[in-house]
Request: fold
Amino acid sequence: MNAKRLARRIGLYAGLTIAALTFIYPFLWMASSTFKPPIEVGSLALIPHAPTLDNYRTMWARAPFGRALVNSVFVATTITLSVLVFGSMTAYAMARLNFRGRPVLNAAVIAVLMVPGQLTLIPLYTLIVQLGWIDTYAALIIPYLFNATAILMLRQFFLQIPQSLIDSARMDGMSEPRILFTIFWPLSKPVLSIVAIFTFMGAWNEVLWPLLVVREQNLMTLPQLLTVFALGGGAGTVGVSLASAMVLVVPVIAAYAFLQRSFIESMAGSGIKG
Amino acid sequence: MPSVNFEHVTKRFGDATVIEDFDLEVADGELLVLVGGSGSGKSTILRMLAGLETVTSGKILIDGRDVTDLPPRDRDVAMVFQDYGLYPHMTVRENLSLGLRLRKIPREEIDRRVAWAGAILGLEPLLDRKPKALSGGQRQRVAMGRAMVREPKVFLFDEPLSNLDAALRAQMRIEIGGLQRRLKTTTVYVTHDQVEAMTLGDRIVVLADGRIQQIGRPIDLYQNPVNRFVAGFIGTPAMNFLQGTLASEGGRLYFSSEGARLKLRGGTASVTSSEPVTLGVRPEDLRVHTIDLPTTGVLDHSPIPGASDGDTLTGRVLLVERLGGTSHVHFQVGPHRLLASVTSDSPPELGTNITARVPAARVHLFGGDGRVIGQSSSLRS
Reply:
């Protein structure tokens, strides 16, 4: 009995280990390869024989990756904050306020969700051209300030918060924005984190849109510059390409690690306690 | 000057009229209880007074000031909610003081009031805890404390005890009553529990379908209900009702129904004999006597001996619920099922035949429209 259980345990862990390695190996290989000299990049080993920072030096020297990093952080952060602030304001109104046209607004938000992004790409581009926003931050940021998915997720969460909390807050003399930001926000950390992560990752990884509206190298975001750099043959070697990919990936991993707990919590479907 | 006035207040949600032409005065320092079943509109009335619901038409005045269109924070009222409405992410102290901080009350004054409420309610050791770490009764006290520190003109309670278990409910009921008498703050208290209403209220307003059925002191509602609804709602166990007709015989008025014939007192001139009426009598007003020994085996349906002679009902015991001090005796009279509350140590046994004396002075008569027919009130006055 005990031996059988032990054997099953071992089998289970072996399987899980193989699965984990399958997922993590390519990433670890990429990370280690950025420190390998060109001659070693072809090997599957994870420890470089002669570690070097040359790939990073070359990359940094050939294109303005520092600037692109700043651009990406600025664009993604602005979009994320805006989606959280305006999204939760919209969601609060949709979930908890009574006003004429609320059902229409709800339907409209869901309708927006059903329109594929590819469909609006060309009209949106035309609009940006006519506004004269080509090669500006506005073109990168403004189309993403609102997000229907975020609004619906926040709304769903806000619907579960007890009415008596809103009533108490109103009796205590709070305005509606104050109720949202001092009562709802602290109670909505799980859903706010997940919306923040999805929005940030989405904005961070966006390549197509920046390629369309930004040609000025100094305004390019990191993935855009990376694409231009790698596809345009600027990288020269695999090691340099991988190094630039690392620069792209590390901030997202850092953000994920930072918000991981709330991320898992919200994935597990958390409610209001206490 | 009355503390709170409702003048012709009407509330509609879409096409549904929830409250219609509601008039009410609450005296200064009074504890007024709004009681009714679910859907009676009692909570809506309270929420309109708080400013949490809009008023469709009519006016609400607090201390003579028209507050109909004022937001809750400008009305000088404080409310205790059924599920307490405590902010889960704040400590007890923060929960108590938030409303005062938002009103820009000086720090020392806030501390003084929080300490005062904490002392009265026994919350001192809990001030730095969060609501999650409190028991139901403690949360209830925090919710009351939050209302108290505001020192409002009017306290509003919306079913504050519904989430507590029976023992704690009884205890908190006493505490709320004591607190209100001590602070002498005008209070409007909503409940569906008529025991709470009876024990707490200076006056009670009984509501059904958004309309006032009766307003009065608890004992008045108990003794002189103006209609069948109030009669059935106030008092536990609920009043017995028998459908029947009135008949005049030899100058005396009788109530008759299948299996029951009762002599009535006083003049009920306004009733024509054929009109259907309802007779009501409270379980505690019935005097029960056993008239035979328990039969063995199953209930038989042999005729019940001893016909009604004008002040008694004769029936067979269907069920006896012993509560300790009292027993509830359910018995069948003709097609009617009645309940008598018996304080004797040896209540009638299951299956025995009993007579229940119905004191004519304790009988309530209701007409076809449910309103009381002069009988019992004229007798009492």
